[in-house]
Amino acid sequence: MVRRIIYLSLKKLMLPVLAAMLSLPLPAQEEVIRKEVRVVKPYEPVLEKAAKINLLPELDDTVRFMPDFTYSITPRPFLATYKARPIRAARIEGETIARLYKSYLKLGMGNYISPLAEFSMNNLRSKDHSLGLYFGYISSQGKVKLDNGKRVPAAYSDLKGEVYGEKYFPHATLEGKAFIANNTVHRYGYAPLLDTALVEDSIRQRYLNPGAYLHYYSSWPDSGHLNYDFRAGYDYFTGISGNLQHAVRFTGSMDRQFDDKTVGLASDVKYFRRNAGMDSAFNTVISLQPWFSQSTSEWRLKAALDATFDVRNGNTEIRFYPKIRFQFNIVPEYLTAYIGMDGNLQTNDYRSVARENPYISPGLQVLNTDRKMEVYGSLFGQAGAQSDYRLFGSFTLADQMPFFVNDSVNGLGNRFTVVYDDVQIFKFSGEYAFQVGDKWSVGGRAAIYRYTMSTEAKPWNKPGFDAALRISYNLRNKILARTDLFYVGSRYARSLDQPGTVLPLSGYPDINLQLEYRYTRILSFFLRFNNMAGIRYQTWNQYPSQGFRFMGGFTYSL
Predict the structure, then answer these.
(1) Do residues 10 and 2 make contact, with C-beta atoms less than 8 angstroms apart?
(2) What is the DSSP secondary structure assignment for residue 221, as one 8-state letter?
(3) Count of domains in the chain?
(4) SS3 assignment, position 352
(5) Which residues are paired to 290 by β-bridges?
(6) Of 253, 254, 177, which Cα lies nearest the Cα of 215?
């Protein structure tokens, strides 16, 4: 009781005192405390590594329990029941075979009075033979303007006829052909400094070439048999001047494969007989070439030794040409390379020389060229699914190589003779072709030639560069178009008026366009445009070409 009295007394006493103290004014705060905390790195809790028990617990029991049980099998056959059900016969539908036509006719006409005619006929499908004939003719009656402003007749004509056939045997094929060709040109390219008029009959040159050949070769379905290939032929070649040449040609080869190795023997025989106006002596060239090859899926090697006998004027010269070629796949289908060495005796007979240059002097004799050695290499393959390419380079040593120069015997210079020289020839060429869809195809090539002469100043009438480009378009085999662009680089000719003077011949382009519209499967119409730029370039020294030419016509099949 006493404690309660004391507590109440103190409470009454302290309340006024506390009230008085709270009523007193507080001193003003003079400064506010400012603190700034910077976190240098966030807090990362880290657990200490604990000791781990790496060993698994094992139970070491000395008692081993081996199960032991027996069993038996009672075999019973399973009898499967089946019911026969007929199988429907397979239905084989006939394969669509394209229709063949026995004959083909093509007729056309162009400026310079240039008619064109072609006709061919062939039997239809046969299992044991094929027989046909062909006839073709084209000519031009136009004139050409020379550098002196005079227009001279530059008519030409080409006529060719053939009868050919094939006979099929179980393991061989026999082919045969008889032909005749008649080519006419005019030697209109006389020296422009001369003030003269040429009589057309005096400058006409006509070449007649009939002949025939047989070709017999094996066609075994496998490689375990003796393969053979023989070809023999005869042709007669003569000019309007009365010079003529008889030629007998034979080539043959046999080979046999043993696993991945193949051995063979090849031969080549040429016999030329000319009349007294050209050469009283005969020329016979015989070549024998044993060879060996071996191949795998990655590479192929072929080696041969060519022994050539050149018989002329009762003298025989023997030449040996080692031949070797090694081909290997760097990247299959995309990059393949081959390198090799070659050589041969090039026969320059009357027919081959006249075909290269029809304006040669009558009775011109050209010696054979000894291509002593040729070292070459190539890269080829595919650059894509529808494109192919090839790069080629070679270095050749050739003795007695002929070069055409204007002949000054008749004073006109409209005929050509030859001079010989030992040369070194470097060649680099490239080819590329690709297909763009089903309609477009493009192909082109280019080549560079470098001649190192021994005695002559220049490689007369030989270009240092040539190129060609072809672009084709096919719209559903209905509309076809083709453009051909050619370019022949600069050449050199030997001057007639100033001996020792070199005449440069400018390079020239040639642009051609061909259009065809196939009205039906048997009837079509065509247009051709040649030398569209109208450039009067010189194919040979003093021989300017015709200008712009066009031709139109149709084709018909029966």
Answers:
(1) no
(2) S
(3) 1
(4) helix
(5) 265
(6) 177
Closest CA to 101 of 522, 545, 413, 530: 522
Local structure of residue 350 (DSSP, 8 states): H
pLDDT tens profile 79-131: 667 678 888 887 776 667 778 889 999 999 999 999 999 999 999 988 899 99
Token pair, residue 38, equals 């910077």
* pLDDT for position 142: 83
The number of C-alpha atoms within 13 Å of 243 and in the hemisphere containing its C-beta is: 19
Going by the DSSP 8-state scheme, the letter that residue 201 receives in this structure is: H
Q: List the end-to-end C-alpha distance of the chain, in Å, as a whole number.
A: 151
Is 56 part of any domain? no
Residue 144 is assigned to a structural domain of this protein: no
| Lookup result for tokens 């209109």 | 188
Residue at 139 is within a domain: no
Residue type, 185: V
Show contacts of 133-138: CB within 8 Å, 24+ apart. 133/161, 133/162, 133/163, 133/164, 134/160, 134/161, 134/162, 134/164, 135/160, 135/161, 135/162, 136/160, 136/161, 138/114
Length of the chain: 558
Alpha helices in 381-519 (DSSP H): none
Q: Answer yes or no: are the C-beta atoms of 430 and 382 closer than 8 Å.
A: no
**Domain membership flag for residue 255:** yes
Is the pLDDT score of 28 beyond 50?
no
Distance between CA atoms of residues 380 and 376, nearest Å: 13
Distance CA 248, CA 272 (A): 7
Answer yes or no: pTM beyond 0.70.
yes
Calculate mean pLDDT across residues 365-370. Answer: 91
Which three-class secondary structure string do you get for 3-37?
HHHHHHHHHHHHHHHHHHHHCCCCCCCCCCCCCCC
Query: What secondary structure letter does DSSP report for 355?
Result: H
Find the domain containing 391 and state its range.
166-557
Distance CA 29, CA 484 (A): 105
Query: Which pair of tokens denotes residue 177?
Result: 């052909």
Q: Which two tokens stand for residue 442?
A: 């493009």
Distances (CA, A) of 231 to 161, 175, 221, 350, 515: 20, 9, 21, 21, 38
> Residues 396-437: pLDDT tens digits?
999 999 999 998 887 788 899 999 999 999 999 999 999 988
For 252, residues 6+ apart whose C-beta sits below 8 A from its C-beta are: 228, 229, 230, 231, 266, 267
**What is the rounded distance in angstroms from the CA atom of residue 152 to the CA atom of residue 200?**
9
Residue 290 belongs to domain with CATH number: 2.40.170.20
Beta bridge partners of 405: 417
For residue range 262-306, list pLDDT tens digits in order.
999 999 999 999 887 666 568 899 999 999 999 998 999 999 999
Sequence-separated (6 or more) residues with CB below 8 Å from residue 166: 129, 130, 131, 173, 174, 175, 176
Q: What is the DSSP letter of 454?
A: S
- Count CB neighbours of 483 within 10 A: 17
